Amino acid sequence: MLSTAPASISLRLDTQTPLIWFDGEFVAADAPEAPLTTHAMHYGTAVFEGIRSYATADGGAAVFRLPEHMQRMRKGAELFGIDFDVERASAATVQTLRANGHRDAYIRPLTWMGTGTIGLDVDPLSQHLMIATMAKVVHLGGARTRLTVSPWKRNPATSLPALKLSGAYVNSILAKREAKQRGFDEALFTDDKGYVVECTGANVFMVKNGAITSVEHRDALPGITRDTMIALSGAESREVTLHELLDADEVFVCGTAAEATPIAVLDRREFGDNPVTRELSAQYARVVRGEDPRYRAWLTPV
């Protein structure tokens, strides 16, 4: 059973420096803890997740699909040989939310390779885990977004698995930075054959004649929010060409931070109203806040 009892920690106000759970202890979020020879700092040998908690209709709070996020994180950790305990990390997540007094929050668990060598052999390295919670919106946050096709290509799954490996996200950073330099909010990856992959941190959906389609691509992260949206909408999941996306009635992207974000512009293609996206976004909001009893199994109480 998941144990969530915090160790003598009282609730803190959001205006104070938040606490981070670090290797079993709470430390201040701005405390310097990582040595400069930390392997992950040099090589990106770390695995993370993006998770959300929400204030619920009953006055409490709940983490959305916590087990699925932690199981995906475990898969990434195993690639580095990191001993990742799903139950321990899940319990630490709830403890950190309680310690910081956070209800609506973004949660960032990170496990990484520490010190022992600065070579490429990770076996001698120390292993670490932290859980941070932030009471603020990150990434797209549901706002209507200007999207552009990136000149960069997504890391192929044959080179880097579609998991949340920290080093792999340099690919997303380069694409997003280039897109913003050209006046857009977000970048869209396509492959060499003209198929849509995903955005820098969100999966892609389109709506045509009322039918919802989820973009499927082997190089894209199998998003947990994507899986949720498919379950809520009955969306078809298949490969989608850029031409199809440009011809759609609506386009939206989704992710833990992005939730359901409507696309206003895709390069020169402007989209008008987004009624289907808006309706699905409202349904998603009801689900994550515990207002729909059919999906309460997705919520972990804080």
Task: Tell me what the structure shows.
By secondary structure, the chain is an alpha+beta fold. It is built from seven helices and 17 strands. The longest helix is centred in the first third of the chain and has 15 residues. The relative contact order is 0.15. The N terminus is likely disordered.
How would you describe this structure in keywords?
about 300 residues, alpha+beta, nine-stranded mixed beta sheet, 7 helices, globular, disordered N terminus
Helix fraction, binned, reads 25-40%
Topology as a string of helices (H) and strands (E): EEHEEEHHEEEHEEEEHEHEEEHE
- Would you report the number of β strands? 17
Radius of gyration: 20 Å
The major beta sheet can be summarized as:
9 strands, mixed
Q: What is the straight-line distance between the termini?
A: 15 Å
Which runs of at least 5 residues are low in confidence (pLDDT < 50)? Answer: 1-14
Percent strand equals: 25-35%
- The overall pLDDT average reads 93
> Quick one: overall form?
globular
Number of helices: 7
The class by helix and strand makeup works out as: alpha+beta
List the helices and strands and how they pair.
Elements: E1 19-22, E2 25-28, H1 39-43, E3 46-48, E4 51-55, E5 61-64, H2 66-80, H3 86-100, E6 105-113, E7 127-134, E8 145-149, H4 170-181, E9 186-190, E10 196-199, E11 203-208, E12 211-215, H5 224-233, E13 236-238, H6 242-246, E14 250-255, E15 259-266, E16 269-270, H7 275-288, E17 299-301
Parallel strand pairs: 8-9, 8-15, 12-13
Antiparallel strand pairs: 1-2, 1-7, 3-6, 4-5, 4-6, 5-17, 6-7, 9-10, 11-12, 11-14, 14-15, 15-16
